[in-house]
Amino acid sequence: MIRAEELAEEIFTAQFKQRIRLRAGLILFVAGTAPFAVGLLIITYLLPSATGPAAAAVTTIAFALGILLPLVSQDQLALLGNARLRRRVAEKVGAPDYPREGMEFVGFSPGDTLRVWEGETDRDVGFLELTGAALIYRGDSFAWSLHRESIDSLEMLETPGAPRRTIVGWHTPGQPSRQFTLGSREARTLKGSNHATIMLYRRLKQWSEQAPGDAEVPALGSPPTSTKGSVQLEKVPAGSCLSVLSIALMTILTVWYIAQRLILAGLYYHAILWSGLIAVGAMILATYFLSYLQAAEARQSSRQSTPIP
Predict the structure, then answer these.
(1) Which of the listed residues 96, 209, 276, 307 has the most CB atoms within 10 Å of its CB?
(2) d(CA 107, CA 125)
(3) pLDDT > 70: what percent of the chain?
(4) How confident is the model over 153-177, as pLDDT tens digits?
């Protein structure tokens, strides 16, 4: 295995992930709250009556969009910045002829479970090449090669609501089987990535069943196995329950304070739109706050744990 310090400066860093997460969070927040805000502006300043049929129609449309747009945006934002990342990593690892047959841009993670590194399910990103004799990976942080006979198993990891991964079991002589997961990043959306990962799994299965080739395999070492600096996706970070309860309580009190005054004033549609704006905005903020708690817990465990060889 070739480590990052033997390569050029890292690209897929914690700072890069944080920038992408902040950008995605901002876009998602705007997507969720903008319909309610625009609806409020329309019924307040553009309609002759804030309680008539037109105001009811505007409120209904705004509410529907306020729920729908975040759901659509989440799928679109899952691979935000991926095209630029792929181009920069290709330049770094010397893959000027990419794309070519047998080579794919993937996310790599040690272990056989879905884990999170700084909000990302990929520990590293790079190019996986299926040659006649081996799997060859050249990534931002690591580079490794695996002979075909070192592959023990191939499975699909499917977690509801999370990206799909291909689990690869492998071994070295005299050592027990270990695992890593791969997710295809040859897509622009989460749905597209999941489909591409299924296709990658099928190609790997077909490749593993072929007779080994005798081509020379570069000596890049074995895949890294340490999961230090990560947490399992389904693990609830410390303090999250109290945080969610606090955010929920503040949201309920704020909605009640604003809505009951508007209802008393006869502005029912204003009350609905303000309630939706506050609730959806708080939900999105809570989701991203929990991801930061998860990232902070991973950094803390990384400082306290011992690397796995």
Answers:
(1) 276
(2) 4
(3) 89
(4) 999 998 877 899 999 999 988 888 9
| Cβ neighbours, 10 Å, residue 11 | 18
Residue type, 36: F
Measured in whole angstroms, the distance separating CA 203 from the mean position of its chain's CA atoms is 23
Structure-model confidence comparison of residues 285 and 214, the more confident one: 285
What angle, 0 to 180 degrees and rounded to 10, lies between the N-to-C axes of helices 268-304 and 53-77?
20
The mean of the pLDDT values for the chain is 88
The predicted model gives 17-21 an average pLDDT of 90
Enumerate the β-bridge partners of residue 155.
167
Query: Residue 137's closest CA among 290, 1, 232?
Result: 1
**pLDDT, tens digit (0-9, with 9 covering 90-100), for 216-259:** 888 899 999 999 888 887 776 766 788 888 999 999 999 999 99
- Cis peptide leading into residue 99 (ω within 30°): yes
Q: How far apart are CA 290 and CA 250, in angstroms?
A: 16
Q: Which two tokens stand for residue 254?
A: 């704020």
What's the CATH fold of domain 82-226?
Answer: PH-domain like (2.30.29)
For CATH 2.30.29.30, the residue range(s) in the chain are: 82-226
Work out whether the CA dihedral 116, 95, 105, 151 comes out positive or negative.
negative
DSSP string, 63-87: HHHHHHHHHHHHHHHTTTTHHHHHH
151-172: string of b/e by CB count within 10 Å (b at 16+)? beebeebeeeeebbbbbbebee
Q: List C-alpha distances in Å: 85 to 99, 181, 213.
A: 14, 20, 32
How many secondary structure helices (H) and strands (E) does the chain include? Answer: 6, 9
- Does pTM surpass 0.70? yes
